[in-house]
Specification:
Chain lengths: ~325, ~270
């Protein structure tokens, strides 16, 4: 509850601030006039109205959705791999998406649709490769999947390096680099329409099936003996999270740290029980990324890539959490 | 006596080399059976065949007259619970949250345990004498307390058969005995079948109705504890340096035969 009310000021603030600051009174006016309430105030300027609805609002929705999606996916991956240091890109989704985006920028028309579609496809493709590779092994444990993910990731990273090496440094390379560092400045309604359904549906499914994540954190053999069909549930969790992450990364590029750090903050707030943890992670992640994006577009005269902001703020914060609590409260393995 | 678990001609191993060879074993309801043998004799392999995490090469396991191979994970988990060695959880759950995981086999995929289940889990926790542990963090407990919680989880899983894989490994002397005593009390009260792997022959002697002796993947002897525990059998299974004797109060105990030249004079 506190969290839900906590998002309101952040929401208003990020609606208001930006390259073109819209005053709080104007925000209220625009909202009221859009609701059809007229009369007791001066109508807002039409260009303000336009900026608000076509630039600010989709951007705010994207930041919140991407933050939620990446954070929930991070929580799910950490539970599944029984490792508090797992991030949602551990199976190669980010590496695949970056490769796909670079591919589109260089060889296809670099329209937003081509980039987004390619990034999404290659992200999902990379995770599927990792999964198929792991299936080849006789060992069915989660660690094999992680190793397969690392292998697939490095292949796609190498692919990305090759693409950047042969790219035109004055035009394509800058574009690729900026895409990889991530940004919300391209957010628009058409991107929201693609990303939001995946994130909403994914979050909903993962919240409904969240209790079983508790069991997934247990030793694999113990989970089996408790009656959990571990490998089948793993397919469900990996698929749902990957679709959320791929649709997010495809729209806004790489957003560093969110999927790793937000689950820790949420665990610090409400404990490890996933029925509480998953929805809280979604809220905290959304608020956090919204705040970071607001910083990214207001701190300097020109926009800062979002990953730089999240890393600078996120990394020391994680360090502080670990040092301050000896790791126990936030769920990093304690040595008795 | 009714047999609730029957193992028939079981051969199992990793890859093609069999570790267990033609095992035949049946366990009776309401009794607690010790599984003893040296390291590498196949105790854990046998436990893994019974809880169906390892597929046998040949032979069958019957649980309550149903073939284990024909059951799915949820059905198996309603028949067999496993108490692992005192473990450590990667994330900090409270003990209540740990115990509630025992409900997976009874829950619909989308549902989670509610208030009724919490009350039931509390009963299991009270049965092991750990009522005050409910809200404490599992990872902050001592080894003995953690073992109690794992036993409570198996109880809460509410199965006719319980497997315990060296539940005493990390426990101190008095905890080993209190855990064994607890297990015996629970088996008798709930009339379940328990199979427990042990290293200390004295624990088998004091707390188990029956003993199965495993050597190099074969069952050398199976029967009532007092019939099996003799010098000859113990030396065959656990090595030559072992003997049975009686204490001053007439309790049968197992001790080493030679203590070596450098032992402390008492």
């Amino acid at each position: 509850m506190i969290l839900i009310f906590g998002c309101l000021p952040v929401l208003v603030l990020s609606l208001s601030l930006g390259r073109y600051t819209i005053g709080l009174t104007d925000v209220t006016r625009i909202l009221l006039s859009s609701l059809g309430i007229k009369g007791f105030y001066a109508p807002p300027a039409p260009e303000l109205h336009m900026i608000f609805w076509n630039i600010r609002v989709p951007r705010v929705i994207m930041a919140f959705a991407v933050g939620s999606g990446l954070s929930i996916a991070g929580t799910v991956f950490q539970a599944m791999f029984k490792n508090p240091l797992a991030a949602p890109d551990i199976l190669g989704v980010t590496a695949g998406s970056c490769f796909g985006a670079a591919l589109a920028i260089m060889f296809f028309a670099s329209t937003p649709w081509a980039i987004q579609g390619n990034a999404f496809f290659w992200g999902v493709f990379a995770v599927s490769m990792a999964y198929l590779l792991a299936l080849k092994s006789r060992d069915r444990s989660a660690s094999v999947l992680v190793i397969a993910g690392i292998a697939v990731s490095s292949v796609f990273q190498a692919g990305l390096s090759i693409l950047m090496y042969i790219s035109n440094p004055y035009d394509q390379m800058t574009k690729i680099i900026f895409w990889i560092m991530g940004s919300f400045h391209t957010a628009c309604w058409s991107k929201v329409e693609v990303t939001l359904p995946f994130v909403l549906l994914g979050s909903l499914l993962l919240t409904v099936f969240s209790w079983r994540l508790n069991v997934m954190t247990q030793d694999e053999e113990d989970a089996l003996c408790l009656g959990m069909n571990v490998s089948r549930w793993r397919v469900f969790y990996v698929t749902t999270s990957t679709l959320m992450v791929a649709s997010s990364v495809a729209a806004v590029g790489n957003v560093a740290w969110i999927g790793l750090i937000i689950p820790h903050i949420a665990r610090y707030l409400v404990g490890s029980e996933h029925r509480r943890l998953v929805p809280v992670t979604g809220l905290v992640g959304g608020i956090f990324l919204l705040l970071m994006d607001t910083l990214a577009r207001t701190l300097l005269p020109s926009e800062i890539p979002i990953s730089i902001v999240t890393s600078i703020v996120g990394a020391p914060f994680l360090g502080y959490l670990v040092m301050g609590n000896q790791g126990v409260g936030i769920g990093i393995k304690s040595c008795n | 006596m009714e047999s609730s678990l029957v193992i028939e001609n079981l051969t199992a191993g990793y890859g093609k080399v069999p570790i267990l060879k033609k095992i035949n074993l049946s366990l009776q309801k309401g009794s607690i059976c010790a599984l003893m043998g040296e390291n590498g004799s196949g105790k854990t392999t046998l436990i893994r065949c019974i809880n169906a995490t390892l597929k046998p090469l040949r032979g069958k396991v019957w649980v309550k007259k149903k073939a284990l191979a024909s059951l799915n994970r949820m059905e198996i988990a309603r028949l067999i619970s496993v108490v692992p060695q005192a473990t450590h959880s990667a994330f900090s759950f409270t003990c209540m949250e740990m115990i509630l995981m025992g409900a997976v086999a009874r829950m619909k995929p989308w549902s989670a345990p509610g208030r009724k289940e919490v009350a039931k889990a509390m009963v299991a926790l009270e049965e092991v004498g750990g009522k005050k542990l409910a809200d404490r963090l599992f990872n902050r407990l001592s080894g003995g307390e953690r073992q109690l919680v794992m036993i409570a989880r198996a109880l809460y899983q509410d199965t006719p058969i319980m497997l315990l894989d060296e539940p005493n490994t990390h426990l101190d002397y008095s905890n080993q005995h209190s855990v064994m005593e607890l297990i015996r009390r629970l088996v008798k009260r709930r009339n379940v079948t328990a199979l427990i792997t042990l290293h200390d022959p004295n624990l088998a002697l004091f707390y188990c109705d029956r003993v199965a002796m495993l050597k190099q993947g074969e069952i050398l002897a199976l029967g009532k504890t007092k019939d099996i525990m003799n010098d000859g059998m113990l030396r065959q299974v656990l090595g030559s340096n072992i003997q049975c004797g009686h204490t001053e109060n007439g309790v049968l105990v197992v001790t080493p035969r030679h203590l070596g030249a450098n032992r402390v004079a008492v």
